[in-house]
Every structure is written in structure tokens, then in C-alpha cells.
Task: inverse folding
């Protein structure tokens, strides 16, 4: 008995390790396949030969058929602009909710949380009409505007600000800091992990967002990568697989590389943000 | 003019809130109300302006066979993706939450699909599913199984999309289970081992109940996602063949931007909003808030 139990335990551990690896390889294989197709000539797309010559032609072809660099720039502008606006707007609102007791603050907070459920893309019809009234159709600002006041960001930052010790604020006030200085010198620096988590979640969400940008944009100058890729990959456009794989990898590369480099921060951020 | 600090507090509070309030009202609250109102009006044309028609649009919706098909598709899509992705997420979390050679690679492999945009995922999987020349049919051919048009057959299109969505989402749910597992005291496993409990018994009677709050949290998020995520349809099927893979939000998009029937789109949106509201209430009443609000 005492001898057999550890042996059975080791056997189970071994089996679990094998299972973990098999599942991991299975899970990563679609992506590996995309790499295979992108770096080999079309005839090797389903013909796996280790000695097949590598090539960059598919990337060259994809870049010549559609302006992916421009799309990339559009996405970059969108994500940067959006995150900057979100950080300012959400910080101010979160500070109000965390440290001010004002008339209607509870109702206002409940109304903010509504946006966690009803995200702007669900109301595409009305939001499109609003954007048309504002003359912002087919602009990068128009893609970003509905998401700038993020309920999620307000919620996360409010939690972070609430957990900041009140004594620090009192001390800063004694030193002669005003309301705004207290926010900038006490609250914002201490909420740094929350800012990082929210930033990564926001960037990856908007880098990947598709439906709303699709509705809003209709020109090369404004289309983000996802929409550009969607237009490029539409079945009726008839591009070949290897080129499509190359285009797909081009579109996801910046985010994927960032993820691989900062894997730990990404996973921690998603955890932090998801658990709220 | 002197205002007491007490009054200033209210003023400051609302001033700080102003930018957020303007944007939230403009893009969340106002359009919600406007959608409900629009659903009660007829579609305006050049000759006949839009007029109040009460619940006529809802009657139209109840008689629309495509609407019912889309709603059931959404239900099957949710039933097909959610339990499997949650089960896989638990398995993945358990596999990774222990000493394992190459653990960071394994965890990365599980999580990577989460960082990819749905549109890129759809592009990759489109090739797997394409008839005869696609990867699945090629592998099937080795075993002498004839090719199949996975996305063109109404019977296989939804399962095909379900498999892809499971691949995309399981790793995302895994991280919540990983976080939860890290908060489970190791003494419990020790105690169970001393009592001679089998691994399965320990999972079923100790781990799974302790993970229940996480499961509820993941479940509700998964249901929401199943209604909000339709990007893949644009690349894979456009809702076809014959609406066999159409989902509610995609149908709303089609009604508004392909058929230009904005009042019907509004009516469908109201139904979607109602479903989301039910989900919100479920989240509010079912989830034990203390566990998630650290």
C-alpha cells in the first residue's frame, strides 16, 4: 500500500503531463499552420515537407494587394487616441465616485454600469445615426468616440481609488495639495497596476474589435486592421490561402509579439480585469 | 460669492463626472431609449412618413421565421460552446496549475487564441473547413473519407463554428479558474490524500464546489459573449447557408445595413436588450458578490 500509492501517483502525474502537452500542441496548431502557410509557396499549403523552401513572397504579395501598413497605422492611431481619452475620462469619473459623496452619485454609478451590458456595438443602428449627425462617419475619431467613457475603466479605477488609504490624502492636504494635485500625486501613482491592467485589456480589445469599425468606416484612410483584413479575406475576393495567411499574420503580429514578450503581464491583466 | 465646502463637494463631483456622463448618455442611454421608441414606429418612406404603429413591429417579428431561426441558432450556439469551453477551461487550469515541464509554453499555447481577433481566427479556420482543398478534408482523405462542404451544409455549419469558438474561448476562461485555484488552500488536497480520496472524488466533492462562484461568473460572461460576438460570420458564412448559421446581432446588422429596415432592426435590438437585461439580473442575483469583489 505505502509503496504502490506513490507509484500510481507518479503514473498519474506522467499522464497529466502528456495530456497537458498534447492539448497544448493541439491548441497551438492552427496558429502554427498559419505560419506554415504564410512562409511557404502556395503549393505547400497542404503539402507538409520539412525541406520546403521558405519564402517571404506571400507577405510581399499581401502588402501589394492591400494597404496593410496604412491599416496598421489607423489601428495604432485609434488605439492610442482611445486609450488616452479613456484614461483621462475614466480617472476623473472614478475619482468622483470614489472620493465624493454628491447628490445622485449612486444613481449615476448604476447608470454607468449599464454600459457593461449594453456595449456601443449592440446599438449600431442608433449610434450610426448619432455619428452621422456629428459628421463623424468614416473617421477614426468616430470609431473611438462611443468607447471613450468606458464603464469598465471607471469601475476598475474606482475600486483602486477606494482601496487607497484616506490618510495619504489627508497628509497631502496638510502639505497644501489641492484636489487635483491629490489625484495626480497620490491616487494615480498608487493605482498603477490597475492602469496597466486596464491599458492592456483596452488595447487588445480595440485592436481586435470589428463590427463597429466595419459599420463606421468605408475608406482606406480610416479602416483599422481588422476591417481591412475582413475586406481582404472576403470569400468573393478570391485570394489564395498562403497570401491570406500572410495578411492575417501581418494584422495580428504587433499584438501577438507584445503578448509573447509580456505574457505574464497580459495574463495577470486579463485576470485582474476579469475578476473585478 | 462664497459657496460652502459642502455645496462645492456636489459641484466638484458632477464636474469630474461631466465628460463621462455626456459620452455615456450619447452612446448608451439615449440610443437605448431611441431604439425602444423606434421599434414602435413604422418605417418611413418618401411618400409615407413614419408613424406610430404600437406593437405592429413586434407582431411582424413573431411571424418572421428567420427571426425564430436566428434565435434558436443563438441558443444552440450558446449550448454548443459554453459547457464545452468551461469544461476544457477547468481541465486546462488543473493541468497548468501544477509542476510541469515547459509550463509557461503550455499556458501560452492555451491562452494565445484569446489575443487573436475573431476575424483573424475565422480567416485561419476558413481554410480548415473549405471543401476538398481544405485541411480537414485533406486529412479525411488519408482515411478514405470523402470531402464535405462543412460551411456550406446547413447541418454542419453551426457545429463547425462552435468548434472554432471553443478553441478561441477556452483559454480565456482558463485564466479565471487559474486565479481561483491559486486561492484554494493546499491543505485541502493534503487532507484529502490522507483520507485516501481519489483524484476524481477530490475534484467532484472539493474542488468543483469551491470553483462554483468562478463557474457562475464565467458562465454569465460566456452567455453574453455568445450574443455579442458575431465577427466570424462576416468571413465564414455571412449567416448562411439559408440562415443556418445566422445569429441575432448579425441579423440586426443585416436588417439595418443590407435591407435598410431600421425600425425592424430596432425591434430586434429591443429583444436583444431584453435578453441582456435578464442576464444582468441573473448576474446580480446569482453571483456571490463578496467572492469577486476582493
Result:
Amino acid at each position: 500500500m505505502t509503496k504502490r500509492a506513490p507509484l500510481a501517483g507518479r503514473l498519474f502525474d506522467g499522464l497529466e503531463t502528456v495530456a497537458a502537452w498534447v492539448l497544448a500542441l493541439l491548441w497551438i496548431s492552427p496558429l502554427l499552420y498559419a505560419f506554415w502557410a504564410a512562409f511557404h509557396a502556395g503549393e505547400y499549403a497542404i503539402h507538409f515537407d520539412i525541406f520546403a523552401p521558405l519564402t517571404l513572397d506571400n507577405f510581399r504579395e499581401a502588402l501589394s494587394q492591400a494597404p496593410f501598413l496604412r491599416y496598421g497605422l489607423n489601428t495604432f492611431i485609434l488605439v492610442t487616441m482611445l486609450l488616452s481619452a479613456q484614461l483621462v475620462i475614466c480617472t476623473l469619473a472614478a475619482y468622483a465616485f470614489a472620493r465624493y459623496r454628491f447628490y445622485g452619485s449612486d444613481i449615476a454609478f448604476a447608470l454607468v454600469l449599464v454600459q457593461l451590458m449594453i456595449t456601443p456595438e449592440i446599438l449600431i443602428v442608433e449610434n450610426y445615426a448619432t455619428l452621422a449627425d456629428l459628421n463623424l462617419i468614416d473617421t477614426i475619431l468616430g470609431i473611438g468616440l462611443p468607447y471613450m467613457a468606458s464603464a469598465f475603466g471607471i469601475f476598475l479605477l474606482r475600486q483602486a481609488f477606494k482601496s487607497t488609504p484616506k490618510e495619504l490624502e489627508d497628509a497631502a492636504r496638510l502639505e497644501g495639495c489641492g484636489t487635483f494635485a491629490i489625484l495626480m500625486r497620490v491616487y494615480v501613482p498608487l493605482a498603477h497596476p490597475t492602469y496597466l491592467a486596464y491599458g492592456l485589456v483596452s488595447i487588445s480589445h480595440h485592436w481586435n474589435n470589428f463590427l463597429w469599425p466595419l459599420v463606421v468606416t468605408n475608406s482606406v484612410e480610416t479602416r483599422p486592421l481588422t476591417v481591412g483584413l475582413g475586406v481582404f479575406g472576403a470569400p468573393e475576393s478570391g485570394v489564395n490561402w498562403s497570401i491570406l495567411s500572410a495578411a492575417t499574420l501581418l494584422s495580428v503580429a504587433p499584438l501577438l509579439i507584445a503578448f509573447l514578450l509580456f505574457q505574464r503581464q497580459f495574463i495577470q491583466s486579463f485576470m485582474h480585469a476579469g475578476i473585478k | 460669492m462664497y459657496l460652502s465646502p459642502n455645496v462645492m463637494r456636489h459641484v466638484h463631483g458632477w464636474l469630474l463626472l461631466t465628460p463621462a456622463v455626456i459620452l455615456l448618455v450619447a452612446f448608451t442611454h439615449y440610443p437605448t431609449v431611441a431604439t425602444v421608441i423606434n421599434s414602435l414606429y413604422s418605417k418611413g418612406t418618401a411618400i409615407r412618413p413614419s408613424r406610430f404603429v404600437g406593437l405592429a413591429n413586434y407582431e411582424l417579428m413573431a411571424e418572421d421565421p428567420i427571426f425564430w431561426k436566428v434565435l434558436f441558432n443563438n441558443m444552440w450556439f450558446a449550448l454548443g460552446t459554453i459547457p464545452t469551453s468551461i469544461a476544457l477551461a477547468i481541465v486546462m487550469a488543473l493541468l497548468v496549475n501544477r509542476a510541469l515541464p515547459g509550463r509557461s509554453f503550455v499556458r501560452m499555447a492555451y491562452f494565445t487564441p484569446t489575443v487573436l481577433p475573431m476575424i483573424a481566427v475565422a480567416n485561419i479556420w476558413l481554410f480548415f473547413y473549405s471543401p476538398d482543398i481544405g485541411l480537414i478534408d485533406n486529412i479525411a482523405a488519408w482515411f478514405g473519407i470523402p470531402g464535405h462542404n462543412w460551411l456550406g451544409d446547413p447541418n454542419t455549419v453551426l457545429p463547425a463554428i462552435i468548434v472554432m469558438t471553443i478553441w478561441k474561448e477556452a483559454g480565456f476562461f482558463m485564466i479565471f479558474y487559474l486565479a481561483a485555484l491559486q486561492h484554494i488552500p493546499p491543505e485541502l488536497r493534503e487532507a484529502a490524500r490522507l483520507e485516501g480520496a481519489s483524484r476524481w472524488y477530490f475534484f467532484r466533492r472539493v474542488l468543483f464546489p469551491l470553483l462554483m462562484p468562478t463557474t457562475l461568473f464565467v458562465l454569465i460572461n460566456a452567455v453574453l459573449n455568445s450574443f455579442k460576438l458575431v465577427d466570424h460570420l462576416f468571413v465564414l458564412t455571412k449567416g448562411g447557408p439559408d440562415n443556418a448559421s445566422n445569429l441575432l446581432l448579425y441579423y440586426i446588422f443585416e436588417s439595418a445595413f443590407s435591407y435598410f429596415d431600421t425600425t425592424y432592426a430596432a425591434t430586434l435590438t429591443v429583444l436583444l436588450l431584453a435578453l441582456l437585461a435578464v442576464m444582468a439580473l441573473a448576474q446580480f442575483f446569482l453571483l456571490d458578490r463578496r467572492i469577486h469583489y476582493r
Summary: The domain at 61-275 of chain A is CATH 1.10.3720.10 (MetI-like fold).
